[in-house]
Each structure stands twice: as structure tokens, then as C-alpha cells.
Amino acid sequence: MTVAPLLVRTARREQTERTPVWFMRQAGRSLPEYRELRVGRTLFETCESPELCAEVTLQPVRRHDVDAAVMFADIMSPVLGMGIPVKLVENVGPVVDEPIRTAADLARITQSDPTEYAAGILGAIRIVRRELRPDQAVVGFCGGPFTVAGYLIEGKPSRDFLLVKRMMYSDPATWHGLMARLTDCFVPYVQAQVAAGADIIQLFDSWVGNLSVNDYEEFVAPYSARILAGVKEVGVPSIHFGTGTATLLRSMAAAGGDVIGLDWRIPLDRGWAEVPDRAVQGNLDSTLLLAPWERLEAGARDVLERAHGKPGHIFNLGHGILPPTDPDQITRLAAFVREYGQS
Amino acid sequence: MTVAPLLVRTARREQTERTPVWFMRQAGRSLPEYRELRVGRTLFETCESPELCAEVTLQPVRRHDVDAAVMFADIMSPVLGMGIPVKLVENVGPVVDEPIRTAADLARITQSDPTEYAAGILGAIRIVRRELRPDQAVVGFCGGPFTVAGYLIEGKPSRDFLLVKRMMYSDPATWHGLMARLTDCFVPYVQAQVAAGADIIQLFDSWVGNLSVNDYEEFVAPYSARILAGVKEVGVPSIHFGTGTATLLRSMAAAGGDVIGLDWRIPLDRGWAEVPDRAVQGNLDSTLLLAPWERLEAGARDVLERAHGKPGHIFNLGHGILPPTDPDQITRLAAFVREYGQS
Description:
Two copies of one chain form a homodimer. With 343 residues, chain A is of the alpha/beta class. In chain A, 47% of the residues lie in helices and 11% in strands.
């Protein structure tokens, strides 16, 4: 009988030999080997090739010896299966030239099979699972429905989510129609990732922390709950993550997730106290990777001390790695966490 | 003996006849009379004229019959007294062409007398105080040191505050030097506003919620504490506000402020429980002003119910009024709050 990967056992709050560590956005622009591979190719093109997508996903695992490979994909990748053209613009983010604003726009949304539109990522999962050691995990990746809807409605990254909220409040039928369609797309997308070999799925609802608790519960939670239930149905655990979520943690846990992702704003022990019956992941400020080692180490130690060796802590950042991060700092941090508590 | 303005008595947590109401950014682009007055004039030019600045400040008080006039100024206004050129760029925000990045840059910062560089705003305070009823308050306005430092270092609005944090972590002497100079500028600025007639001062540290609790306490709190102590010294109460501060409220209260501003992310009762010995201000989501009246009213009622009629609640939004807001909605909301609980 094979032992499950360390990350999966921690997600289930089993007592483990040490704290697992990986980093959100560990694959990507912080690595020179990634920047080299990307020359002349768009991100979506890279994801379309199982070999390239697997290579980019594996680069940080080789370099930093982390406990998980997070699939290299964009939050907007499954939207390509919905017939909505999306561009990823350097230094801007996802741009949708014909945003979804009205009930009529919903008619433009189609549904297709993830084994077709996500064949590259699914093929990459098979390769990555084969390449990893059995104790390392493949983390499947899915954008959260609020965050993806935000890009689809605003047409670009937004600070206030004014058009999103205007739709929620003034045209709730269109909002709910859009969220239902996203959910109908995301459930088969995550299930296909599990079928291909993903050991755990992370739902990245990066910007959901912009919402009040009432709005989150009315407009988002039911859809996140359906996606996370879809993950559970196929027998793997899930990680439910957002930023700025200090006031939403209980509601997010109620929607689902074996692991609740904490951002850097909430001290880890305070965040865990909000969701005591779950595992937690986090939560070092990503910008600390730009700091001198002594300060970075002190920050990492603070996170680990606040976890108190309780089963169920996955070490990570509070958000993704920033592109200008020195990869050697990441490697050193991963080693520090692996060795922490092993005397 | 004159009775203090309703807002001031509420800030002191006295039992009052009703809940005071005003709105952050009530003066400005939501009002057609403001947009008309601004034709052909920059914001800084408008603030330089005591008459124009007073007029813009008074417009929303006349229109909405709110309990306070918040001085129309920019968060960067006092920076003009520090010899650092700042532009306010439409749809972008404050832009500093020669940002502060190194110890050498600190030498460019000068200190001048607020009665000179802020003569317009101070003159406007005298006019506004004379024009208001005695039960209405003049709210003086000062940017928070983190937020202002953020614009000075990044050179423009930022999502991650990467350069700011890099300076904090890697060159703390320059960071502390900048914060000390900002504080040296802001203390006389707020004290001059009080001398001119401001009844209360609000410190707007809009983006401070980006920081972890540890970083807030080490890098920001000591300076906010000095500014708020400077307000106390001249005998008026203060409001201490930021957004995304759910995890910082206790630390912000420890730094100072008779009133703690709550943003819309934290239910008002939960926020108040974090700072039980203070008054609180807030905290309706600004985007609800774009919603149909029934939803807006339900949101306002929820805020008021969570305040439970306890002395010390100032009704406000969780952040500023958004420019596309219909002013009639604002007027109606102000009336609803004024009449709430008066049967």
C-alpha cells in the first residue's frame, strides 16, 4: 500500500513527519529557466503543450525541492473552453475585449469538454504525476468563481469591482446566470484534473476579499460550494484560498475546503482559530522574499511558531511569488521549512 | 455654553439624540455642481483658493444635510509643503515623477509652515466653520503616513507595495527617515487645521491594510501615534481610518484615535468588538449606493442594527463615495439614517 503525499496527509490533518512546503506561483517568472522557455510563446500556448506545461510545472520542484508541483495554468484557462476570448497582457493581467455585462451576453457562453480545451494541462498532469516522487503532490489549479467573473465583467483587473457589484445588486439574474455557467464549467474541469492524476485541488479566489460577508454569502458561496463538492465527489481534498479574507474565513470554510488558505494579513494562529476544524495553508508575506535573509527567516519562523506543530499546517506564502524574487531565496526558504523542527 | 457638534459628542461616546451621518469623499466628483466648478482648474488649484475650497466642501452639506463637512483636500496636499512635486492624474491617482527611493532622496524633502503652503485649506476651514450650524462638524483631513509614503516611494498607486516593502525590509533607515519627515510635516498640518476651526481630524491611511500586523506595528504605528497625539494635544478628537484593516484594528486603536474607521469588509459589530473602548465609524459598502434603493436601505439598516444604538457610532461608508454615484441616492441615504430610530 502506498502512502499518500505529505501534502495530502496534512490536508487531512494527519500527524506527519514535518510541515510540507510549496509556494503559490512557484512556477513562472521568478525562474530564469521559465523566462527562457517562454521566449516567443504566450502563456496559453505554453499550457497547450503537455510537455511544455509539465516542464514549467516541474522546474520549481527540481530547483527548490518543494513538496508539491502546482500545475502551471492561468486562472482564465478554463474560460477558453467557454468561448470567451481572453488575452493575458504583460503588466496588466487578463483582458476580455467583449466583457459580460448583460443577460444577452450570457448567450455567448458555450460549454465544452475539458478533455478538449484543457488537453494540454491534463496531459501535463499525467507527466508531472509520473515524474514526481510518491511523497510529492500534484496540486490542480482552478480560479475561483468570483475572481473569474470579475475579469469577465470588468474586462480587466479592477480595484473596486464597481461593475461586478452593480450587476450583483441591480441585475442579480445575470450575475447568478454567469456564476452558474462558470460553475458548470469548473466542476468538470477540476474533476478532469483529478482523473488525470491531481492529488488535491486549489480553488484560487484571489479577489473575493473585496466583498462584505453578506455579499459573499449571497453571491459567491453557493457556487464555490458546488465546485468544492465536485472535488470531494472524486475523492481528493481541496484548498480554498483568497486574499483579504480575514472576515470571510468562516463563510469560506462553510462553503467547503479541507484546507483554508490564509493571506499574510492575518496572523496564522488567529486565522486558524477562525476555522479550527480545517487544515490551513500559509501565510508569509510574499514581499519578505525580497528582504535580507535574517528578516525572511524571522518571518518564516513566526509563521511556523504560530502553527505550534499542530497537524494540518501547509507552509506557503500569503499570496503568489512576485516576479522579481531571487530564486535562491526561495530555495533557501524551502530548505529552512523542511528542516524546521527536525533536530 | 455651546453644545459640541453631534459628531464630536459621538466621537466621545456620549449618549446623543441620533446617529450622526456623513460620507467619505462626499465632496467631489459625484456632484454636478462640483464637476462644473472644476472645469479648467486642477484639484490643487481649487484647494489653493479658500473660497473655492470652502464652496466644494459645503456643496454636499447643503445637498445632503449631513452632520459634517469634510475638508476638500487631497491626501497629497501637505506633500506640496515638503518640496516634492506631485501630479494628480485622472483615472490614475497621485503621480510622483521623482520618487523617494534612497537615503539621498530624503535630502530633497523640505519642511515649510502649513500657514503658507496650506493657506487655502486653512482659510476654507474658517469659512466652512462660520457657514455651518453649530451642531455640524468640520472634519479636518490628513493622509496616513503609510499611504502617503506609498505614493512617494512607488511614484504611483500600487497593488503590492513591492518597492515600499523592499525599502522597509532592506533599508529601514531610509524608511524611518521618510516616515519621521512625514510625521514632522503632518503634526503641524493637523494642528493648524484645528487652530483654523476643525472640530475633529480624520487620519486616512487608506492602504495600510496591505500590511501584516507585525509590519504595521514596526513600521507605521509609531508615526500614526505621533500624529494622533498631536491632534489630542490641541484638544479635539480624531478618527483613524484604513481599508482592509480587519486584522489591524486593535493595533490601530493602540496607536490612537477616539474613533476607529471600519471598512465594509468587517461586520460593524465584529469590528466594534475588536475596539470596544472606542467609537466606530462606518461601514456600508460604497458600491451599494449604485444599487436599487431597497438593497441600499437593507444594507444601511443592517449597519445600524449592528450598532445596536450603543453610544459612539458615526454612520459612514466603508470607503469613499464612488464618482458615478447618483447624488439623489446619497441624499436619500442621509435622510434614512437621520430618521432611523426616531419614531
